[in-house]
Each structure stands twice: as structure tokens, then as C-alpha cells.
Write a structure and sequence with these properties.
seven-stranded mixed sheet; Aspartate Aminotransferase, domain 1; alpha/beta; about 375 residues; 2 domains
Length: about 375
């Protein structure tokens, strides 16, 4: 079945819910049992049947099943945010004395988690640049390899299938943040990633009004470890946010196609501008990761960056002149966004030596209006 068809038909049970096309919002902490026997039997299936509100109800399981199928994984686990999915995935496989390899372009708060929490619990953390020889960085106690393709803000690409093969040969668990591509444009589990995470907050919800995360496990053993860790930490996906995600996903394919087209038009226009040094997106033909992206991904979303020919204060002035692009972080919604970054403090494995970076999210506005806004601000 094509993903578009799956998105239209997933998470529906009209016969059970008065003929309603979509599942209802189900709010519950308490789940009642018919008798003690029912309680005891349900206890044995708490991870897949309603047992306690925190572990999920019908919409939770429907969302998890839909994402697992789209991603080509075994099963998924919904949690309260994309960051929670990442920290839960990392902590599930790490203990004191272990070593973890983290992408230098990891989503920023992942770095904070590694520096402030994992290190405090005795985990050794190494940040790597994707151009480095990863095999040479693996130590006997390396347990987890964190991947993000393309990486946050600078959009560095990685050879995910090759890195998964390497990790598997050394008994290392791979954790991929696949938020940028969504499961529509890249299926991590299919190429061997053990845990794929998504900030459903972004394109899956798609309307900038909910926070939600999800982890997809490649196989049963990985799922069991993740699910146990999520339960021990009390992770939970909120009913209203699940509803908004399931609703947003119905239109994911059409929205993504539009985000991709508009981003392509913006990149082409920006690449010719004298104040733009280079475009950072694997979907841009001159990007060094373009060949890998073309080989492994079936599309690009609307998020990309430009290295600018100006200093950081000047870039801030440009951003302040934009009127259609909002200044804000959480991308993937219908609206265009712009954020200036001074990358010199953001990377440690390979120092950033170029100019400041302007990250743009191409929303669903008309591309001509967005280009007009950029032209005016850069002028
Ligand atoms: C690549 C990436 N992963 C994860 C997250 C975290 O998502 P959430 O805001 O749902 O915690 C973000 C948020 O910006 C992100 O950009």
C-alpha cells in the first residue's frame, strides 16, 4: 500500500465509534476492569491494551501502529515530545561506564542531555563529525551510535545504511532522529536503524499546535527495551496531541510535497544572491550530501539553511526585517520561519569556520510572497 493511502485509512474504527470517520479524543487516567480476573489478564498485556492511562488507549495504539508501518519497523512508542523520544531511546541502552557517539549536528537539546545528564550518570560522550572515520572512534565499551540525517541547522548528510552495518557488526545500537525526512521520505528501520525517533511536533502534527514524540523499534528485542524504559520513566503522550497528530497526518503527503517545492524555489533564488555564501540542504544539487540523499531519500522537507556573507549582528537585522517569516524554532507547521544562528559555539567535533547561518522553514504560503519578503529583508 502506498503511504498516501495508508495515511487516509490508518487509525479508523467507524463501527466502534458511532460511524465517526476519525477516532475520538480519549482522556483517561483510570481504566476500569470488569472484575479482578479481567484486571489480572489485562495486566499481562499492559503495553498493547488499555490498562492505565499513562500507557495509552486506543488512539495511542493506533498512532503507534501507523508510524511503525510507515517507518517499516516492528512497533512504535508514543511519548510527550520529540526530545523525550530521543532521551528515552538513548537512556534505554546506556549505563554507567558505557560510551556513546553523538552526531556533532544533533538537535541542540540532545547535546545538553548528553552533557548534563548522561555524563552525570557516568556515560562517556564523544561528538563526531560525519566526515570523520566513525569506525576509528568506536571503543570496546561503545554501546550507542546516534544519527541524524541531515543534521540540525547545518544539514550534514550521513551514509545511514553503511553506519548501521558498521554498528551491527560491532554490537552497537543505532538511534536515528528522522524528523526532517518524516517516514514518508526516509524509512530508517528498513535500512537497519534500531531505533528511529520523530518529533511528531513538526510535520506529522503539521500545524504548530501540539508537542509529541515517537520511537520506532526495528525488532521485538529493541521494542521491549524501549517500552520498559519509557514506562519506568513515566513517559506519556497526551490525548489531544495524539488526536492532532492523527488529524495532521491525513494531509502529510500533500503538505510535504508543497513544503519541498517551495523550499526548492527559495533555495534557487537564494543561491544567486550575493549575500548568500552557500546553501545547506542535501536536496540542493551542489550540496556535498546530495548524492547520498538522492540514493537513500525519496524527498526533502521544507527546512534548510544558508551560510551568509555577513556577520551575525547583520544577519539578525535581516531577520528582524522579515514580515512573512516568523522568528521561532519549532518548524514543520504551515508557516514559514527564520532563525539566525552563530554556529561558532554550536559545534565541538569540527569547529565552524564559516559565516553565520540563516535557517529557514518554507511554509505553505505562496513562494513568490516568500521570495518578496526575503528580497526586501536582504535588500
Ligand atoms: C531535529 C529535531 N529533533 C527533535 C526535536 C525535538 O522536538 P520536540 O520539540 O517535540 O521536543 C526538534 C525540535 O526542534 C528537532 O528540530
Amino acid at each position: 500500500m502506498h503511504p498516501e493511502t495508508r495515511l487516509a485509512h490508518m487509525a479508523r474504527d467507524a463501527r466502534r465509534f458511532d460511524g465517526a470517520v476519525n477516532l475520538p479524543v480519549m482522556r483517561a487516567s483510570t481504566v476500569l476492569f470488569e472484575d479482578t480476573q479481567h484486571l489480572k489478564t489485562t495486566e499481562k498485556t499492559w503495553w498493547e491494551k488499555p490498562y492505565y492511562g499513562r500507557h495509552g488507549l486506543t488512539p495511542t495504539f493506533a498512532f503507534e501502529e501507523a508510524i511503525a508501518q510507515l517507518e517499516g519497523g516492528y512497533k512504535a512508542i508514543a511519548v510527550e515530545s520529540g526530545l523525550a523520544a530521543l532521551t528515552c531511546a538513548l537512556s534505554a541502552f546506556l549505563k554507567s561506564g558505557d560510551h556513546v557517539l553523538i552526531h556533532d549536528a544533533a538537535y541542540g537539546p540532545v547535546r545538553h542531555y548528553c552533557d548534563d545528564v548522561l555524563r552525570r550518570f557516568g556515560v562517556e560522550v564523544t561528538y563526531y563529525h560525519p566526515n570523520q572515520d566513525i569506525a576509528a572512534l568506536i571503543r570496546p565499551h561503545t554501546r550507542v551510535l546516534h544519527l541524524e540525517a541531515p543534521g540540525s541547522i547545518t544539514f550534514d548528510m550521513q551514509d545511514i545504511p553503511a553506519l548501521c552495518a558498521l554498528a551491527q557488526s560491532r554490537g552497537i545500537i543505532t538511534v536515528l532522529d528522522n524528523t526532517w525526512a518524516t517516514p514518508l521520505y526516509f524509512q530508517g528501520c528498513v535500512v537497519g536503524v534500531d531505533v528511529v525517533t520523530h518529533a511528531a511536533t513538526k510535520y506529522l502534527v503539521g500545524h504548530s499546535d501540539a508537542l509529541l514524540g515517537v520511537m520506532v523499534a526495528r525488532n521485538e528485542a529493541v521494542y521491549h527495551t524501549l517500552k520498559t524504559n519509557a514506562a519506568r520513566h513515566g513517559h506519556h503522550a497526551a490525548p489531544d496531541d495524539l488526536y492532532l497528530a492523527l488529524r495532521g497526518m491525513r494531509t502529510l503527503a500533500v503538505r510535504l510535497a508543497r513544503h519541498q517545492d517551495t523550499a526548492g524555489r527559495l533555495m534557487t533564488w537564494l543561491a544567486d544572491h550575493p549575500l548568500v555564501a552557500r546553501i545547506l540542504s542535501p536536496a540542493y544539487p551542489e550540496h556535498e550530501g546530495h548524492a547520498l540523499w538522492k540514493r537513500d531519500f525519496s524527498g526533502a522537507s521544507g527546512l534548510f539553511s544558508c551560510v551568509m556573507n555577513m556577520d551575525y549582528p547583520a544577519l539578525c537585522q535581516v531577520v528582524d526585517r522579515l514580515t512573512l517569516f516568523g522568528l521561532g524554532y519549532s518548524w514543520g507547521g504551515f508557516e514559514s520561519l527564520a532563525v539566525p544562528f552563530d554556529m561558532r559555539r554550536a559545534r565541538t567535533a569540527q569547529p565552524w569556520t564559516e559565516g553565520p547561518v540563516l535557517r529557514l522553514h518554507a511554509g505553505l504560503e505562496h513562494p513568490d510572497d516568500l521570495i518578496g519578503d526575503l528580497a526586501n529583508a536582504l535588500g
